[in-house]
Amino acid sequence: MNSVKIIVPATTANLGPGFDSIGMALALYNEITFTPLASGLEIDICGEGASQLPRDASNLVYEAAQVVFNRLGNAPAGLCIQANNAIPVGSGLGSSSAAIIGGMAGANALLGSPLDKLQLLELAAEIEGHTDNIAPALFGRLTMGLITDGQVFFERLDVPPLTVVVVLPDFHILTSEARAALPDVIPYGDAVYNIGRIPFVLRALQNADYNMMSYAMRDRLHEPYRFPLIPGMDAATAAARNAGAAAVVLSGAGPSLIAFAPDNHQQIANAASAAFAAAGFASRTFILGVDTEGTRSIVI
Q1: Using CB atoms within 10 A of its CB, is residue 182 exposed (0-12), middle (13-18) or buried (19+)?
Q2: Which residues make beta-bridge pairs with 47?
Q3: Do 102 and 198 belong to one domain?
Q4: Are residues 217 and 148 in the same domain?
Q5: What is the pLDDT of residues 102-154, one digit of tens each?
Q6: Among residues 47, 61, 206, 221, which is most buried (max CB within 10 A)?
Q7: Predicted confidence (pLDDT) per residue in 188-213, tens digit
Q8: Nearest to 49 by CA among 33, 41, 61, 57
């Protein structure tokens, strides 16, 4: 078996009202190299998460690879995984999904790619339980998907070149904590509010219609419950809008915010970052394009 390198993009999920169903790939990447060994497991991590991610069999990339090896009934005797991560861990930018997709794609590529991307999506959905991050990580661009009666349905939508601003405060929030903040029951009116906006989000992104984004990318199902968990989020969102952002939403479960605008991207990033600083938190900013390829593999 040859070594393979997997390149998997970051993702942003929900995009306002599309809770657990809509996601988009971003041009920020983890690169993971898989090399067969005669025996044993070696894991090396550099970049994001290097000081906190496990280097044993509990590593999520390795666990995801094992799912594919088990599915195909074949595996190398040993494995070396070298991860060069640019996607921040626990950021709301799909680092866990990138690990799952990266591990599955790497195992598949080592065995000659017998599974297509849709089959990998179905396997990943069994772990994630929803498609909002894993689908764009695999296929790129803008995706919508759902899982029903054990089946995965998804569509990939083209979008024009877009530039987004991501602001990540130095504040840690577990996805499990963000999930726990959501109520078990929501008002009927809030469900209607979100449902009516989802098709407009898709159309706005497809057409780069920033005026439409301004009223479509609003949410009542998760952001009102998650914003209070993140100090400075309300102020940062307002600051980004005042600096020219057409729409500002929580990326995934947070704590990153993502802002959409035709221009003034650095000014928007600076304004939101200053608002987080006023709340006592440093932040990092990213100005990113949309990834159009999704996960790819290179035999090396």
Answers
A1: middle
A2: 85
A3: no
A4: no
A5: 999 999 999 999 999 999 999 999 998 889 999 999 999 999 999 998 899 99
A6: 61
A7: 999 999 999 999 999 999 999 999 99
A8: 61
Beta strands at 40-47 and 78-85: parallel, antiparallel or unpaired: parallel
C-alpha dihedral, 295 to 7 to 256 to 67, nearest 10°: 70
The angle at the Cα of 243, spanning 239 to 245, to the nearest 5 degrees, equals 90
Buried b (16+ CB within 10 A) or exposed e, 88-107: bbbbbbbbbbbbbbbbbbbb
What gap in Å lies between CA 245 and CA 234, rounded to an integer? 14
Q: Enter the pTM of the model.
A: 0.96
Q: Tokens standing for 125?
A: 């959905």
- Are both 245 and 147 inside the same structural domain? no
Domain extent for 84: 4-157+290-299
